[in-house]
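Could someone model zinc ion with this protein?
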Amino acid sequence: MAKKSVKYVCGSCGAQYSAWAGRCSQCGEWNSIAEEVQLVASNTNGVKPSGRILPSQAVKASAAKPEHRLQTGILDVDIVLGGGLVPGGVVLIAGQPGIGKSTLLLQLANAIAGQAAVLYVSGEESEHQIGIRATRLSAAATKLQLATSNSADDVAATIASKQFQLVVVDSIQTMQAAGVTSAPGSVSQITNSTNTLLQAAKQSNTALLIVGHVTKEGAIAGPKLLEHIVDVVLTLEGEAYGGFKVLRATKNRFGPTTEAAIMEMDEQGLKPVLNPSQALLEERQITDGSVVLATLRVLVHYWWKSRRL
Ligand SMILES: [Zn+2]
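Reply:
Sure, complex below.
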């Protein structure tokens, strides 16, 4: 038996309320609070838990298993991940729309398809559109599988079938979980869809890459709420047109959060900048009194706003 519980969550900082309010008293954001429906199992009053008994094994045996990570084909991205994608690991790639997340993921999916079974699920574009982009990225020749869907349950069932070692979901804002009536992109849909996908990934030991869009204002609730659920949060930042893109981890259960991949977009997709120091200092004017200042403009500023939670 499962019953639904309703709570109200601020999409900006994640604060929870029992009733709706126009303004979040935690972070001061207006119109950021939305209803979140969660399916809760009711196993009180002597009712047995519906789950199964967990198999367990000694720590020694678990540690002895060699860890096989999937290599992404871009060394810098592997370094940011802490050595590649971990089976059963759930990675969120967050960034503004149009920054190049889909391009980067299609490239990575294509590279990994050379060594493992990979499925790219898009809720944003048709298979034809992705196919055209894949051809441009010279990805069309590989064994990469494409599918279009907005159903988190269908994607979860596909993940659970263990046909694929990596599944890419582009984007979480287009996914819809059964039993949740609100529109795709809402707080309830994003949290429930992610949980559905995550459970399937963990159970089947499938690596899962999820795309999450954010806006400059941090208005879209998704990625902020997902940060707590997923294993790794990568942010792709930079200018939408031209210039460098920086990929870095703001959370990583499998590696460091100190590495960054600096890339540049060309017709064949994102390419790592081999000598970032040289490239960044290219326009430097060497005259008396010239000063070089290293700064990082944090576009996804609201990631940090909630650190006090
Ligand atoms: Zn708030």
